[in-house]
Write a structure and sequence with these properties.
Elements: H1 10-38, H2 44-51, H3 55-61, H4 65-90, H5 94-112, H6 123-147, H7 159-171, H8 181-193
Helix pairs in contact: 1-2, 2-3, 4-5, 4-6, 5-6, 5-8, 6-7
């Protein structure tokens, strides 16, 4: 006789994810406070104690102190970008707003990924934090630009994270042809703003479908 399969409890799963996110936010908040107070991150044990979480829980989310430091620097990067996004969203010229926002992002990211400044943020952490914080704002900018015909009509919202990954990976990696972001942002946006003679290839289906 076949054993019946029990449907997963979605509310319970969602609750666990919510608890994990709350723990992450608490750990990061405490770590940032301690780093500001002490001039650098203390030990992982000190962070776990101050955040009132188990050391195992902390290491499960951040396997090393360097990973935690990278995550915090990525959040600092996003904090410093907020005024630029506010200006871009208020700019009536959608074309100028998107180009200037992208240049601000590239210039700031290059400083945050410069080892000569003592920065240790990883490109992956930077991209994840950027998308988590600003994806809704980027979608809004894209819609405004398409409405004013400043952006080609076949650009999709799903293109945004891919374009961000291309820009961060291609324009701001330390020591890798990152000295002319304005030039290449202009070239990229020429392709985004003008409808070409050939339609864009379709996006791949989402993973898992």
């Amino acid at each position: 006789m076949a054993r019946s399969m029990q449907a997963p409890n979605l509310d319970e799963s969602s609750g666990r994810r919510s608890d994990a996110r709350a723990n992450d936010e608490k750990v990061v908040r405490v770590a940032r406070r301690l780093a500001a107070k002490n001039g650098g991150l203390p030990s992982m044990q000190a962070i776990a104690d101050a955040a009132e979480v188990g050391l195992t829980t902390l290491y499960r989310r951040f396997p090393t102190k360097e990973r935690l430091a990278s995550h915090i620097q990525a959040l600092d990067f996003c904090d410093q970008l907020v005024p630029a996004f506010e200006q871009a969203l208020a700019d009536p010229d959608s074309r100028h707003a998107m180009r200037s926002m992208t240049l601000n992002m590239a210039n700031l990211a290059s400083r945050f990924m410069d080892p000569q400044r003592g920065m240790t943020v990883s490109p992956v952490d930077l991209l994840d934090a950027y998308l988590d914080r600003f994806l809704p704002s980027m979608v809004q900018l894209m819609r405004q630009a398409k409405k004013s015909r400043a952006l080609r009509a076949d650009i999709e919202e799903a293109d945004i994270p891919r374009l961000c990954a291309i820009l961060l990976g291609g324009l701001v990696l330390p020591g890798r042809f990152n000295d002319a972001p304005e030039r290449y942002i202009a070239l990229i946006f020429e392709g985004l703003e003008r409808k070409g003679s050939m339609p864009l290839p379709p996006l791949p289906p989402p993973i898992g479908f």
